[in-house]
Amino acid sequence: MTTALQLSLYGLVMLASGMLALAEGTAFPDAFTIPMALLALFLTERWKLFQLRVRWANVLGLAAFGLAGWELSSGQIEARLLSLAHLLVYLTWIVLFVDKTPRMSWNLCLLSVLHVAVGAVLTSSGAFGLMCVVFLIAAVWTLTVFTVSRVRQRYDDEDAVLFATHREGDPPRRTAELNRAESADEFLWNQRSRPISTVQIDPRLRWISGAFVSGVLANVMLSAVVGMLFFVFTPRIWVGSFSAFGEAPDLPLRALQSGFAEEVQLGDIGQILEGTNTVLEVRMFDHSDNQPIDIVAHATRLGFDEPLFRGSVLGEYANGKWRVGTTGRRDGPRHGLSPTPTSDCIRQEFRMEPMDSGILFALPQHLAGALEHRLPLLTERRVTSVLYRDESVTGRERLQYKIYSEKPRPEVDLPFPRGTHLTSIYADELGYYRALPAGLERLQNLARQIAVPTDAPNSTPTEMARRILQHLRDSGEFGYTLDMSVNDPSIDAVEDFLFNRKQGHCEYFASALGLMLRAVNIPARLVSGFKGGDRNPSTGYFVVQGRHAHVWVEALLDGRWRVLDATPASRSDSVKSLAPKLGLFGTIADMFSNIWSHHIVGLSFNDQSDNVYAPLKEIGTTAWEGLQESIEDFLNGENASEGSSRRRSQIIAGLTIAAVLSVLVGTLLLAARSRMPAETRSPWFARLQRFLNWLLPDESIANNGDGWRARWSRWWSRLLRRLRGESAEQRLRVEFYERFLRLLRSAGLEPLPAQTAHEFLIASQSAWSQRLAADNSVRLPADVVTQFYRVRFGGESLSSDELQQIESQLGQMEQQWSDRNGRR
């Protein structure tokens, strides 16, 4: 028993520490608990070589609080967030090496639960969710073994009190009692079961048997069901939004995690493209008939080779870095986006992972949009048409929003597709998007040579843009790579790309295209967002990951901002090569991760309202209205015939009588099974109980009388046994215990209604021990109770020799007690 409890408890601690390490993303100090637990298991529990004294445990506890306080007061926001998690780890290390009293064992279980609770705050990954299921099974198993161990210890103590007196001449102690201490340290699954006080287990089974394991699994399933009910029906209502430490994590760190940044430094995206974390999930419908639309096919009709999800617009370039710039930030106040479309359109439904940037993504030419189930409106910039969520909505939560966009218009989207539907822009803003930094003379000369060849001096802006685009994308002179090396750091990174390296990723191609367009007086700007994605067949969503991060150009041509992408087609092959290779197990894991992230962790009050509360309300309302209608139709007899009215009256009378009888029978059964003390009952209930005791007497009346009440009581007792599923043999074999009870009652020993056989034996020990000691029968009551448990609860049948021996002993005791009473 002890070994099984130790293995279960320490295994639970190691599992919880591994979950916290997974959530935090670092091995120290969380994962270090695993070797510490193994060390404590052998040194402290098994070999008894080292045990931490209480005094030193208190000193180390103060040191743990001091270390956690230092982390809390440090300047790094991440350390502040994790200081409390590390405090749990330090306290767990201390408790592992102290003496494991029941209280300390409970403390270890509590610390394990807190590990998991803190980890759930730090991550929303599906792997952590799967480990939560494993933790539930391990926790229920550990607590069950711990409870059995505690119950066994308590009943062992009671047995020690019961059999404490042992005089000379008494029969030898039972073999099971002599071997109890020897078997205490055996493995739980190697011990044979036996009756312990009021607990009776089939002696043919082990302590840990199939029934025990199935019982634990049943508890796990019931716990999961009850927990899921609480989880589903508890409203997800959050009061306000605040930062626990008064500040937010640095933007670049979170931006790299999502694959998106509001500023582009040449070279950064090579790191971003290595990420496979999900950023967006989107699906598309025709808003008029709600029919789903294939996103890739829709992008093709718009003129894109892959879906483009527009994000930030960057207009200022200097020293290899693109920024939003003054015009992009101060292009007039944001104006609210209409929450509903005014014409036939396409509906885009997005699920976006947490992101500190307030920008929202969408396929181009948006018309309207709204956050799902939220009051704040979406806003957009006048010049850039960048979408923003309301400032009251934090970036710490997943967002669901809808964007309504135009249907494809090929006559308008040629020769280049539109990036926005807005066209208003002022002259000074046009100059801003034509500005070039100093030192790019070689780039300007190259742009003019390509855009305005000698044979076409009067080319239109659209023709010049096409020539520059084809030179970068289709000439074969430039190649796509994620290699971020620089050949000549003394010159601008874009000129190094154009004249030296001639290889790069989308940032370099877009930067070269945008600056070359400006060199020929065409307003141009960079757009940062995502390109491409993969359809998830299990959810129906189009999934966009960090590896799909992309940068392209918007140029003002023919009075509209149009999309130009100079990145070669080999970029798609490179992005696909970064996709994780999912087999069957990976697909199942991905499906579970999606369910965990969006339907468990991401469950919102609006989801509950739509999927739980509203359907239940509708079902209840429909049922109630149907019941009311049925009752009204039934009771409304104005137009009914005389026969039908009489029939209704008979039905009503029958239902009334059935209801009264049901209440009466229910009250009788409740009173018959009641075990409440007499002083806690109300007067009417006490009178009813006395009547039932007279009408349905207990077994003492049945076995000590021959009148009608005794015969009625015996019939009632047999009926109850049949209802409990007792076989005829069991009912016959238990007669020896009833005979034993009659014998004790004749001596004035009456069991209380709530006492079990073993409890009655302990309570009456002082009364019968001296009398039985004189007759050399002190072991008889314990033997009778043990055999009774075997028959009544163990389902066994006593042999004829065992029955004959018990009946003989009871007969001798009856005769001796009768002779003693006669002499008195």
Question: How would you describe this structure to a colleague?
Answer:
The chain is of the alpha+beta class and about 800 residues long. Among the domains are: about 1-160, no CATH class; about 260-430, no CATH class; about 605-635; about 725-824. The chain is about 55% helix and about 10% strand. The chain contains 31 helices and 20 strands. Strands 2, 3, 8, 10, 13, 17 and 18 form a seven-stranded antiparallel β-sheet that branches. Strands 4-16-19-20 form a four-stranded antiparallel β-sheet, with helices on one face. Helix 1 (about 1-25) packs parallel to helix 5 (about 100-120), helix 6 (about 125-160) crosses helix 20 (about 585-600) and helix 27 (about 735-745) runs parallel beside helix 31. The longest helix has about 35 residues, at about 125-160. The radius of gyration is 41 Å and the shape is elongated.
Brief characterization of the structure:
The chain is an alpha+beta fold. Helices cover 54% and strands 11% of the residues. The strands form 5 sheets. Strands 2, 3, 8, 10, 13, 17 and 18 form a 7-stranded antiparallel sheet that branches. Strands 4-16-19-20 form a 4-stranded antiparallel sheet, with helices on one face.
